[in-house]
Design brief:
The chain has 2 helices and 5 strands. The chain is an alpha+beta fold. Strand 2 and strand 3 (58-61) form a beta hairpin.
Length: 124
């Protein structure tokens, strides 16, 4: 590691959930209305890109680019997990309605008993 990596490590946030392109996320952004007033505004949509790394990492949601480790992003909620085969989903920009749907990823945890029972059934 060089010195820049050590400086960047101190600037990284730890409360970012694990998500990838194709997931539907809700990004809560701090909006400054006046000198003293500040509010949160939520942007919800499909994450179509995740670029760079470290402190410079950005995500693209709803045609808006958010710096992931900046202070304007209050927190991120993962709404749905999508099943896609691309890292950049720019083709979704031209699609509308049902054509823009993304299949949902199966996130259920498989137990050992269920796997053993299904495997035993296949052997017979």
């Amino acid at each position: 590691m060089n010195r820049l990596d050590n400086v960047e490590k101190s600037q990284l946030r730890t409360n970012i959930p694990a998500f990838q392109p194709g997931d539907t996320v809700r990004v809560h952004v701090r909006i400054k209305e006046s000198e003293t007033k500040e509010r949160l505004q939520a942007f919800e949509g499909v994450c179509i890109a995740r670029k760079h790394g470290g402190a410079r990492e950005t995500i693209t949601v709803l045609e808006r680019i958010f710096p992931l480790h900046a202070t304007i992003v209050d927190h991120i909620d993962v709404i749905k997990r999508g099943r896609v085969r691309r890292a950049k989903l720019y083709y979704l920009r031209e699609l509308r309605g049902k054509a823009a749907r993304i299949r949902e990823r199966d996130t259920r945890v498989k137990t050992g008993e269920a796997q053993g029972a299904s495997a035993a059934g296949k052997v017979k």
